[in-house]
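Morning!

As promised:
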Amino acid sequence: MPKLTKEQLEQIQEYIQSLPEEEREPKLKEIMSQFEQETPQCPFCLMSEGKIPTTKVYEDGEFLAVLEINPVNKGHTLLFTKRHIRLFAELNEQESENIGKIIKKLAFALGTISEGINILDSEGKTAGQKFDHFVINLIPRTKDDSMKISWQGKPSNESELAKMKEIIFEVMPKDKPKSIPINEDILKKEFYKLKNKRKP
Ligand SMILES: [Zn+2]
């Protein structure tokens, strides 16, 4: 919901107070629903809440996989978290353990009905993320379909690769003993801190 200014809130309050008592509640609901409609809602959250009809191919307490309604090819599947998170790195320990198993099942199924599959996770606008909700596209491929993935690699060298390895080792979260629960909030804060530090 967009944030109302203090003045707007006061105006609404004043107006509601001026109405006969029995009209206050329905009028307030009507006004608030207008503000709610102005907010663009996350389609993945709406699908998780069952507010957008979907064709589910997998569901558990944490994840939902549905068929894309505008598929590249038949079987194009969207796998996403039910909770609103933006990135793979925001998955909690349990979710990150489970997601591999779910992808394996889906990849097995889709692999049997296609010539190949792309498993695609786009994170950040630059990478083509359209909504701020973590989603993995599993795309069955056929020869000469409409999907194009290509890039031009630039040659690197040993010292560049060694330096990059050092950076990755430095920022990569270290595995902790199982008995110590990982504080997800701290991990998330740390991720964004490092991400900002490494911004080009
Ligand atoms: Zn969402």
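Residues 158-197 form one domain.

Hope this helps with the figure draft.
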